[in-house]
Amino acid sequence: xxxxxxxxxxxxxxxxxxxxxxxxxxxxxxxxxxxxxxxxxxxxxxxxxxxxxxxxxxxxxxxxxxxxxxxxxxxxxxxxxxxxxxxxxxxxxxxxxxxxxxxxxxxxxxxxxxxxxxxxxxxxxxxxxxxxxxxxxxxxxxxxxxxxxxxxxxxxxxxxxxxxxxxxxxxxxxxxxxxxxxxxxxxxxxxxxxxxxxxxxxxxxxxxxxxxxxxxxxxxxxxxxxxxxxxxxxxxxxxxxxxxxxxxxxxxxxxxxxxxxxxxxxxxxxxxxxxxxxxxxxxxxxxxxxxxxxxxxxxxxxxxxxxxxxxxxxxxxxxxxxxxxxxxxxxxxxxxxxxxxxxxxxxxxxxxxxxxxxxxxxxxxxxxxxxxxxxxxxxxxxxxxxxxxxxxxxxxxxxxxxxxxxxxxxxxxxxxxxxxxxxxxxxxxxxxxx
Length: 434
Ligand code: DLL
Hints:
Elements: H1 6-9, H2 13-34, H3 36-44, H4 66-71, E1 85-91, E2 99-104, H5 105-121, E3 129-132, H6 140-152, E4 155-157, H7 164-173, E5 178-181, H8 183-196, E6 207-211, H9 217-227, E7 230-237, E8 242-248, E9 255-257, E10 262-267, E11 281-287, E12 298-304, E13 306-307, E14 319-320, E15 325-326, E16 331-333, E17 336-338, H10 340-348, E18 353-364, E19 367-376, H11 385-403, E20 408-412, E21 427-429
Parallel strand pairs: 3-4, 3-5, 5-6, 6-7, 18-21, 19-20
Antiparallel strand pairs: 1-2, 7-8, 8-9, 9-14, 10-11, 11-12, 12-15, 13-14, 16-17, 18-19
Helix pairs in contact: 2-3, 5-6, 7-8, 8-9, 9-10, 10-11
């Protein structure tokens, strides 16, 4: 097993926690002294930086939310004057103002280190040729992975997203060995390859790095099969840094959190009370070293669980399990909680259906209804009513078993649903009138 920063990645847990405490004290002081927003928030609850004596004391600090970033748009949460900031990024909010963040030189150095860690942990090497199909721009994904791969010493092809056939042509011509994309775009690239008659096993492609949206184990299996690669899942968010907050190693037993730079907690998503170790809840992150925009207790809205046992790969940094979904993506259908990822798991296991689906939620009278539009793989099936019905019934029964809910299933023609080059949007909730 190769490491990018072995001494750090395999530190004894006691040492990691001691380092976290030292850094937590320093960052709370730093945020209090340099960001009026944090001084106001801490003063309002009567907490002083000196009250942080143990790691658990992080709970004394108020939570920070996306709205806090919006309310302080654009530079209100910056702790450094603009002359120290060398880059800004922003998240693509669909409504309202975006979240703007800034990085010092040192922040970029840390950021590229933590991206390089999961790249190397998943088998990325200096002789890789990397097609970076994340959209370049204000999105942290493209430049984050770009810098991480450069730090590893690989060759980056900054192709950005879109123009899928050209992506495939360049993949062949340039001898690309690693792909960076959202899982949805990875699926679309794989599907386009099949349509073009390109055999993925004849390509040099061997690794795929997928992040920026939730993907199930089944989706990764599908990506591995379609593209003939080994896959990696990696996690991050603009407010806290970008990609690199956590990433899988080759054993794929959860995503190792860069705990020397982030303190992770799991809280009850309704009460915000801390949950016992190992339980699933909302991830809350505190940056421990970030200079540009330090963030105390950011509510990610992502639901996951943290595993602290050392991983057989040798890394001691805690792992977060694949994200189940976001608290704001959870659908409540006739009182039952449903995550799109549960539906995705079922569909990805079935060969008869393609990788595209759409979930439509509506209210008919007083009843919520959930309909899933699913593309079939073979268009000829549409001519055989009997077979079509039996497939529909099979999917319905499986979804009922997993969701404990009756779902309408509609099978649609191959390639009739929308494809995504970035983050997918697969849910249409018609109950929300927007
Ligand atoms: O998506 C940062 C990123 C870019 C991570 C590239 C990994 C790779 P935002 O656009 O601010 O930042 O979106 C952050 O995306 O709160 C999660 O809900 C979701 N997300 C990101 N990575 C994963 C993942 C980037 N691996 C939001 N699994 C986060 C599940 C993810 N959800």
